[in-house]
Write a structure and sequence with these properties.
single chain; disordered C terminus; 1% strand; mainly alpha; 70% helix; globular
Length: 421
Amino acid sequence: MLKKITYASIITSLIGANLFSINLGFFHLSLFRGILIIILLLMFLQAVLRNGKIQLRYSQENKYSIQFFFFWLIYAIFTLGWVKDYISWVKAVYFIALGFICIIIYANYFRTTDDILLVLRLFSLMIIVHNIIAWYEVTTGNYIFLPLDRALRYARSGYPVSMFYNTNDFATFILFSIFILYICLMNSKKNIGKLVYISTIISSIILLIKTSSRANILGLIIACISFVFFSMKNKKVFRNIIIILTVVFIIIAITPGIMVNISLSIERNLKFNLASNSGSDFIRLNLIKNGFYFLFKTYGFGTGAGNIEYWMDNYAIFDTKGILNIHNWWMEILTGYGIIIFIMYIIFYIKLFLSIYRKYKYCKNKTDMCIALGIMCIMVGYVIGCLSSSSNISSEWLWVFWAIVISYQGMGIKTNKNMGE
């Protein structure tokens, strides 16, 4: 029963928080947040029935990941001692706490590769839904989930956004989606399922290019290069790559105009002008400069949870044209939470990647190899893709995804040849 509810939390995390939510004044109770509360209450009830013992499952592989997020949460709470914007502090602490709670829940209930595969299939269902909504937006100019002023601006450019409020957040989601769909594709036994996954992958790539999100487009290119590199080390996976490339070649041969348009779009979007005294590149560079200045002024401890925007509004020395969000996930961690948390996060990310790589290298069953390969490519692409959004900390689906990956990290390496389906 409780495990089924955790599956529902996966789906609802991909639904906009403002949809189907109750405004409690100080808090929007969305479907996802409501389900998390139910899960926590049921877990507490189970703990009471076990004479107060709370069950926490972890292994040596994901021990550091869990410890890091717990320490990050405690550190974020302690920054109350020097933050200046208390409301933003509460919001930031909430999201870090949410991420830690998701890790605890999923580490307890997702215990097998089949669990992870089912979770990714649930993700893929919502990916298909968001693809459909996005294509409806770009073809009709009607943005159902956006306020009118933003909808009109996006309609003029033909940007897809779905329920993600802005096109950069949607692009990051699509970057992840492409490799989640790959995992589902390689573990699908039915031809109709394979056709749906392939079609959605192609659709997602085109939509990603339409977002004009340079960091995510570049992230996809780097992730695809990594995909081919890692695949060449495994003959079974490499055969699948040949099949996929053959399908892509056939599509290009039938409709050569698609490839030309994609190439032109990539070339147009991947232009950077850091020498300019205006424009988005100028603003982003100044945001980073201010971030380092704030770090220096806070003696390396950071501005405190959720307080970068306050500092950017009141203490910035480099012009950001009114833009307050730092638009860089790495700088958001460094500037907001200081050098210690930043170094610990880098260690966490590297250890997580190496854990997944070991699964890919030593696992003998197809399901684990595909899951591990897909996650590695996502992690490589996210290194660049995370630079696009104004802030990733409020993206609930991202916290859910990383919690799933950490729960998978904690699973032992299986060398049997089960297909996991």
